[in-house]
Amino acid sequence: MPLSDLWNVMIVDIRNPALLWQALALVFCVAAGWGLAGLIGRSLLKNRDEQGRLMRVGLGGVARVLGPLLTVALLSLSKVILEHFQTVNLLRVALPLFVSLAVIRTFFYLLRRAFARRGQVGEALQTFERVFAFTAWIIVALHLTGILPDILRALETTMLPVGAKKTSLLDLLQGIVSIVVLMILALWAGAALEERLMHVERMHSSLRVALARVGRAALILVAVLFSLSLAGLDLTVLSVFGGALGVGLGLGMQRIASNYVSGFIILFERSLAIGDPITLDKYSGKVSRINTRYTVLRSADGTQTLLPNEMLITGVVLNQSVTNKNVRAVTKLVVSYDSDLAVVMPLLEEQPKGVDRVLETPAPNVLLTAFVADGYELEVGFFLGDPENGQGGPISEVNRKIYALVHTGAIKLGHPSMDTRLLDAHITSMMARTPEGASDATEGGVKQTGADLGKN
């Protein structure tokens, strides 16, 4: 008997007391099926040993599928038992609904197990599963009620003007559905491809990102073209759109197109990789993400800078890890002219040794960089093997060790001094122009003042 006829018979039998037993059996089967599935899921979560963790990974998603599967099994058993005593039209109508639910959830569970169990791909599959399940249930309900053929005929006879032609509303809806489904599948496949590529350790990180971006763009393009052809649209009309798009890119979107092209150049030539510490103009930090339009640069203080890819192609980029990750860090100080450099410089060379993250090879060194007014300017240099973690910590620790030497008097820092000889000469010449009585009266004071300043 067709399902639509079953629906009509069930409406006729709605006043039959036997229908109450079928309704009770339906409620019991649904409650028992989902209840048993919940108990199985909770029992898996309570297991704490290693084997239990492996079982949760393999069977955690099964708990979501077990609900409709157990319900279908219980409904089938109830139908076999009750049909010996009465008609079971309600169970015959309810069984296809739960079978469709079980099939949909089982299918998508297998997809998640085969391609992705977590992350963006898993979320995309769950969203697509909900949309697909909702659509399938609506179609099944319309088919059970016998309304679906009438709706299809009405949609097919309703014509809509599309340009110079007319198309039926059914064809338009089919085109929209095909576009949505194919786009969801393309996005899911692109995310699955990206997740697979990110786990290929033998491939360079930039090449993995580039292949993922190109693969996703190609899948979306194929999905759009294929869905348009399914909708009955002539693809030759896209040539006009492609020409207009090319003109727009050439005139009004030069910088945007340049950034996108630069992004693919960076990814394919591998000039930058995720994790590289770089410096560009006034921006310094570690490359945390390379997108097709911009690159994210994370500095040592945690701030993130979005650099257009065009700057990385046309500007001078200091990449500290292309050939060698070792970076020289420096701290400067000025020691007094009374210091003996033969003693001070070897003493300063020993201070970076033993500091965390400071390399022993190349060894730390001290350079005499300048003679300033306050004393000798010295530069203490040492190398770090992990510049992406910042230089502030090791420099601070080295400065603290130098401070300890200053505090004990082993190193004497330079300080500003004042030479008063020019001041004394200027004061003497000024006082010589005063009257003799005032000059004699003040000469002793001036000399005394000059002597006092010389002492100071």
**Individual helix count:** 16
Shape: elongated
Strand order of the largest sheet: 6-5-4-3-7
Number of strands: 10
Oligomer: single chain
What is Rg?
A: 41 Å
The computed structural class is alpha+beta
Low-confidence region ranges: 48-58, 441-456
Percent range of helical residues: 55-70%
Cα separation of the termini: 117 Å
Count of spatially separate domains: 4
Order of helices and strands: HHHHHHHEEHHHHEEEEHEEHEEHHH
Strand content: 5-15%
Provide mean pLDDT, rounded. Answer: 75
- Report the major sheet: 5 strands, antiparallel
Structure explained in plain terms:
Belongs to the MscS (TC 1.A.23) family. The chain has 456 residues and is an alpha+beta fold. The chain has four domains: 3-146, no CATH class; 255-319, SH3 type barrels, CATH 2.30.30.60; 327-408, Alpha-Beta Plaits (2-Layer Sandwich), CATH 3.30.70.100; 421-455, no CATH class. Helix content is 62%, strand content 13%. It has helices at 3-12, 18-46, 50-59, 62-82, 89-114, 119-145, 148-157, 169-198, 205-230, 238-251, 254-269, 309-314, 341-349, 392-408, 421-432, 436-455, and strands at 159-162, 165-168, 277-280, 283-290, 294-298, 304-308, 317-319, 327-335, 365-372, 375-384. It has a five-stranded antiparallel sheet. A three-stranded antiparallel sheet has the order 8-10-9, covered by helices on one side. β3 and β4 (283-290) form a beta hairpin. α1 (3-12) crosses α5, α2 packs across α3 and α4 (62-82) runs antiparallel to α5. The longest helix is centred in the middle third of the chain and has 30 residues, at 169-198. The chain is elongated, with a radius of gyration of 41 Å.
